[in-house]
Design goal:
Blueprint: H1 6-17, H2 23-30, H3 34-46, E1 66-74, H4 79-89, E2 95-100, E3 107-113, H5 116-127, E4 133-140
Antiparallel strand pairs: 1-3, 1-4, 2-3
């Protein structure tokens, strides 16, 4: 674990809110020079704390207005069936996240579709035909609030 000071935590919060900010802009906000800010960000990257930067796309503006969370219970369990399922499910472009979980379901998927009819097509033709799929439970996302995290 790397020791973080208040400035490091502030940089992480600022980058979590907008990862596209320049080292110069961040430095001005925290009273640091651009090179000093860049060195801190580089140290956070090298330590693995800052693992990457992502774009946050507006799915609705891109024509994908429905998000559904699926709980998937596999009919058969074993290393081979898990690997077969994972290999097949990551090939479906509408599946945004695949989480292997402990509990009622074996996997939790986040699926994005254009509308309910499009989701039904993805469910019937792509997800229900995956290797080992048993029970499937769906929850449609109504709204979402993103929080920056525990920093």
């Amino acid at each position: 674990m790397t020791d973080l000071d208040d400035i490091d935590r502030g940089l992480l919060r600022a980058l979590a809110e907008d990862a596209g900010q320049s080292a110069g802009a961040l430095g001005r906000h925290f009273g640091l020079s651009q090179p000093a800010t860049w060195r801190r960000i580089k140290r956070l990257q090298d330590s693995g704390i800052l693992a990457g930067r992502r774009l946050d796309l507006d799915k609705e503006k891109l024509g994908f207005g429905v998000t559904v969370f699926l709980g998937i219970k596999l009919a058969t369990k074993g290393q081979l069936s898990l690997e077969d399922f994972e290999r097949a499910v990551v090939a479906i472009p509408e599946v945004q996240t695949v989480e292997h979980v402990l509990g009622l379901y074996d996997y939790r998927l986040r699926v994005t579709a254009r509308d309910i009819a499009d989701f039904e097509r993805v469910l019937r033709r792509r997800i229900m035909t995956l290797p080992g799929v048993g029970n499937v439970d769906a929850n449609v996302l109504l709204s979402e609030e993103r929080r920056p995290g525990p920093l």
